[in-house]
Known about the structure:
A: alpha/beta, B: 4-stranded mixed beta sheet, 19 helices
Amino acid sequence: MNAIELRGVVKRFGKFTAVDRLDLAIPKGATFGLLGPNGAGKTTTLRMIMNITKPDEGAITVLGQPMGEALQERIGYLPEERGLYRKMKVVDQLLFFAAIKGVDRDTALKRLSPWIDSMDLRPWLQKKTEELSKGMQQKVQFLGTIVHDPEILIMDEPFAGLDPINVLLVKDFFAEFKRQGKTVVFSTHVLEQAERLCDRIGLLYRSKKLLDGTTREIKNSYRDRVPLPPPVEPEPELEKIFIKAVQESGLAAPTTEELR
Amino acid sequence: MNRKLLIVVRREFLQQVRTKGFWIATILIPAIGLAIVGIQVLLNRSLEAKGRVAVVDLTGRLYDALVAEHRSRGSDGEAKDAPSARRGEALEFVRVEATAEGLPEVRKRLNADVQAERLKAYLVLGPATLEKGTAEYRARSVKSDIIMREQVAGWLSRAATKERLRDKGVDPALYEAARVRADLDVREAKDVETGETGKNVGFNIAVSAILFFLIYGSLFAWGGAVMRGVIEEKNNRIVEVIVSSVRPTTLMLGKILGIGCAGLLQYAVWSTLALLVSAPGAMAMMGFVDAPRLPATTILAFVVFFILGYFLYASLYAAFAAPFNTEAEAQQFIMIPMSFLILSATTWFFAFNSPDGTLALVLSLVPFTAPLIMFMRITVQTPPAWQIALSLGLLLLTIWGVAWFAGRVYRVGILMYGKKPTLPEIFRWARQAD
Lengths: 260, 434
C-alpha cells in the first residue's frame, strides 16, 4: 500500500503553473527524497500533500484516504519556513503543538521525555524560546513535529541552516522512523544528502516530474548514459572527524552556541 | 474543529494576559483617569478668588455693601453656609481712603503695590459705579483671574443695586426676599414619565463620553494586538507549522476571540474598580453628591457595540496584516480601518450635539462608524427602534462580509513571503479558490 499517492495534480498561482500534472506514489516505509532546484515546485507539492493548499486539479490520497483534516494529525510536518513563538516557554510550546494534534499533556511529556534528555533540553523547558540559541530552537521544532507520534514524516528542506549536531539528529530521526516502518518524505536541493539517505527519489524541474523510482532503479537505467566517477578510497567524513577530535581533546563538550 | 479553536483561543488569551504590559495598562489607565479627576478638583480649587484686593471707594458707601455681599455669598454668588474663615483666607478686600483730588497720588502707591505683588488688584468705585455699574479694576495683567473678576463684578452688581434701591426708598431686604431664581425642570415629552430628567445631564454626558472613548481606545488597542499577533506569527515563521494542523480560518478566529477575551477581562477589572470607586462614600468624597446610576440601556449598548465593533475591526486588522511581514509594511493598509475609527472620534461632538441630525443618523448607520456613533446616540437620546435595528443589521452583515474577506485573504497571505503585495493583489487573493 502507498503511504502517499498523487494523481494528475496541478497547482496554479495566477498564470504561473507551480506543479504540472504530477503523479507520484510513495510506498509505506520508504524514505523518499523530493529533489530539484529552487522554484521547481517542491514546497507547493509538500503543502498540497499536507492539505495547506489545495490542488486545482488531480487527487491526493494519504494512507489510502483522500487527504483531509483528519489525516493531518497522522503526519508530522516541518515546513521550510519554520519557527516558534518567541515569548512562549519551551514546554508550553511543545504542549501547544501536542494539543493541536490532539495529544494530551501527560502523553506528550511521556513521549518526548527521552528525546528531551538526549537533546539536553530539560534545563531549557521553563525558559522563553527567545532565550534559546538557534540550534536549541531547531531541536524544539523537531520535537514539535513528532510529538503526536506520526505515521508519516514530511520535512521541507530539513537540513537547511542546521549545525552538524542537528544534522546528525535529523538523520537519527529518519533512521528511527525507518526502523519503525514509518514513511519519511523530505525535499532537498542538495543531491548528495538524498543519495545517502533515500531509498526512493523523485526529481522535479520547472514544475514537472522528470524522474521517480528507487534510487537503485534510477541509477541502473542511467548506467550506460552517465559516466561513472573514478573509484575513491574510503575516507572518514569531516563531520565524524570533528566529533572524534572533540571527544579526544578531553575538553568540555561544545555548547550549542559554539556550534551555530 | 471546536477543540482546536478552543486551544488557539486559550493560547492567545494567556499570551496577552501573561504580559506585564497587559497589567500595566489595566492598572495604569484607571489610575490616569483618577489622576485627571483629581487634577480637575485641584484646578477648580485654584480658580477660587484668592489674595488681597484694595478698594478705593469714592462714594463712601459701596465698600461696606461690597464686603457684605462677599461675606454672605459663596464664590458662585449663591448664599452658602460654608465657614467664613475659609472664605476670609481666600479673598480679602482692604479699604483705601482717598478723595477725588488725592486719587492720582493714591493710584501711584497702589500701582506700586500691585507691581510688587503686595496686592492682587485694586478697585476704584465712584459715582459712575452707582449710576451705570462701571468700576475701575487694575491688576498686573488684563488676562489673569478671569473667574475672580466675574465674581467681584457679581458682588458689586448686587451691592450697587441694593444701594440704588435704598436711594429710591426700597428696603434692600425686600429685594432679597422677592428675588426668585428660575429653574427649568427638563423632562422628555412623553405621556408616560420616563424618569429621565435634565438634572443628571452633566453626569450622563461625562459617562457617555468616557464610555465612548473607552470603546474607541479598546478598538484601537485590541485591533492592534490582533494585527501584531498575525504579523508575529508570520514573521516568526511559525504560522505554516500551525496551519498544517489548524485551518487558517480557525487560527484567525481563535486569535480574534482569544485577544477579545483579554479585552473583556480588562473591562471586567475596570468595572470592578469602577463599582468600588462609585460606592456612595467614594463618590461623595470626589464631590459627586448623590450621583445617579447608569441607565441599564447604556450598559447594554456598551457591551453590544464594543463586541460588534471589536469583531469588525479585529477582522479588518487581521485581513490587512496577513499579507505583510512587518508592522511597518502593514501600516499603510492598516490606515484604512484606522481612519474609520478616527472619523468616529472627530465627529463625536457634532453627533453628540445633535443626535437627531443627518450626520449622526448617517454615521450611526454606516457599519464602520456605527459601533461608536450609534452607541453614543443611544446614551444621549434613544433613537427610533428601526434605526437601531437597521444599524445592528447592517453591522452584522458587514461583520459577516469582512470576516469572509479576512478569512480568504488571511489564508493566502500567511503563506506569502517576500515581495510586498499591492491592494489589487490582496483583493485577487480573496477571490482565489483554495
